[in-house]
Amino acid sequence: MSDMPRQITLEEWDQRYEQLQKAGLHQPSYGGPLSRHVGDGDKRLLKLRYDNSAAALRLWNFLLTEEDRLHEARNKGKRLVGTMKDLGTVPVMAYSFDNLAAFYPDGAWWIPCMMELDAGLLEIADSLGIDESFCPVRAMLGAFVTGAHFPIPELLTCSVGATCDDFSAIAQRLNGLGYPILWWEVPHRRSGEPGETTVKLPGGFSAPKCQVEFVKSELERLKTALEELAGQHLDEEKLSAGIKKANQVRTYLAEIRQLAFTAELCPMPALEMLIAEMLAIHFCSDQDETIEVLRELLGEIKTRVQAGKGVLGADAARIFWVNPVADLQVMNLLEDCGGRICGTEYLFSHALDTIPEDLRPVEALAQMVLADPMVGSSADRAERICADVRRFGAEAVLISRIPGASHCALEGEVISEIVQTELDIPVLEIEVPPVTDSMRPTLRTRAEALVETIKARRKR
Ligand code: SF4
User: Fold this and answer.
1) pTM of the full predicted structure?
2) Which of 140-153 are b and which e, b meaning 16 or more Cβ less than 10 Å from the residue's Cβ?
3) Closest ligand 1 atom, CA of 164?
């Protein structure tokens, strides 16, 4: 059996799975061949290419069994919290209780892609007046109406204020449909005025102290609601322990990202890296297992780097990717065109930063909320992107626009201008809908042109 790292199809994974099993593969309870998930309607899986490691198998199986895990949690008496929009902070609080499980209904974003539009979620959103002028997160409405993709949570929370118009409108529509929401406010992050005390936030931004105080009061309100739901008090000791656990996830991800984005040969494909990063947001509904999945993935990456093995050629063009793609297949496409990912900003960089452990826990979480690149200006976000491009040595930036997303109308231009002025590297903007089949040749041509430009610049 060859253990050379490479990307394989779903069909090839079936054979590889048998080989691994014969070789004594140890699997968690949610393990099994990847192709079985196609039976759940996830047809897009047939068109993706996957890393061939046992660590990647575990990662994919973990991702694709989340719905079962949520039902199981409920059957075992846990209460479910649907945390919407803040991306990464409220789940840290929820998982500090031993009888709550939190998830982002926003994750329905990817259902139209995974089911190649068969689930009809976008049509349901259309019928509710939320048409394609909104971002694909509108699929969440359809998922609530059908009840077919996740159990309806006992408590729904949603951050508002410095939130995109899309999410505000969609969540309000959801509320109007009879799903009560606990709204909490995040102010737009601003610079301090002369004489005003400011706080340096994790990740590098800063905000006036009064904004941190305000978010703290909002998080206290959330904490009370979670305590009522759980029937337990969340004291500082328990919340600090929850923060430590979340930091374990973030520490593994920091190591994984550093190695994957800077190794001479790319040790892990873009698609698996995207999924791994997403685990930071709500731990795919099982925080302990997330830690184990990432530990194994990190082990695989370290082994490959030490052995000088990778999945792509040594001359792959080093590209920094901005925004998550609605169609996962595009991550494969970039690599087919000769690119590799060296840095990402998938709208939740703050969920990858270490939460301060030397502050009172609610204060630390309030800082994380304000460190969100999406609650400040596009210029702030561009500065963070520039810093990470330098850190990972990327040679170009690719901004994948999200169709209908209100922030995408102008931010690409702002980011592009700042990146080109500060770093003098090429920037490409593309738009990626949930299923890209009809525009694949165009996307390919544009990605190939970017790769060629990068390689031509190396000869200058
Ligand atoms: S518009 Fe952007 S930030 Fe808002 S929900 Fe859609 S993807 Fe998320």
Assistant:
1) 0.96
2) bbbbbbeeebbbeb
3) 4
